[in-house]
Write a structure and sequence with these properties.
Order of helices and strands: EEHHHEEEHEHEEH
Largest sheet: 8 strands, mixed
Distance between the termini: 25 Å
Radius of gyration: 16 Å
CATH architecture: 3-Layer(aba) Sandwich
Number of domains: 1
Structural class: alpha+beta
Strand order of the largest sheet: 1-2-3-4-5-6-8-7
Number of helices: 6
CATH topology: Aminopeptidase
Number of strands: 8
Strand content: 25-35%
Helix content: 25-40%
């Protein structure tokens, strides 16, 4: 059975399974606090972090969840997160999620991270489908999905709740057959 690696090299960044240490938890917490206003535009979860212990508890929770979370690191420093929101080997699909500190936007880090996670999902775990859900107003995240080669399928009306209000989301997907056609031989 395939295993999720602890580190994935993506060129100028790497995806790293979270270390459950107090220093890494503090660093994770500091990144969230520094970028909280930016992150809250499209995400609810930054509100759940009011002290470093909250970050520690999160890292402890995801430590052993199959494929769950990776931290995006540049020069050994946390700059974002990437991972599988849902990972279902039985039904052979997963959903990808990501966030990035604004100072690191526009560098292609998330697109390269998506490619690395595709290699795991399609290549090692034999999944047939990956999907990304993006708020209909989050133009930058939509562009990430398109640059990563995902196909826009449609809109889920009231597909999630943000800050207590229902929001529409666009569903993007990539199939294993599409990934195989795009691989460099």
């Amino acid at each position: 059975m395939a295993e999720f690696p602890k580190r994935i090299d993506c060129g100028d960044c790497e995806l790293v399974k979270p270390e459950v240490t107090f220093s890494k938890s503090q660093e994770f917490f500091d990144v969230i606090v520094k970028n909280k206003e930016f992150l809250l535009e499209w995400l609810d979860w930054p509100n759940y972090y009011s002290k470093p212990e909250d970050a520690y508890n999160y890292l402890k929770t995801v430590e052993n969840v199959k494929g769950s979370s990776y931290l995006i690191q540049v020069d050994g420093k946390i700059v974002g997160g990437h991972g599988f929101v849902n990972f279902n080997e039985e039904y052979k699909f997963a959903e990808l999620g990501y966030w990035l500190a604004p100072d690191f936007n526009g560098r292609g880090l998330v697109v390269r991270g998506i490619a690395a996670l595709e290699n795991l999902a399609f290549g090692q775990f034999g999944l047939n489908r990956l999907q990304i859900k993006v708020d209909t107003e989050n133009v930058k995240s939509q562009a990430v999905a398109v640059r990563a080669g995902y196909v826009k399928e449609g809109i889920l009306r009231h597909g999630y709740v943000l800050h207590g209000a229902p929001r529409d989301v666009i569903v993007y997907s990539k199939l294993k057959s599409e990934w195989e056609k795009g691989k460099v031989k």
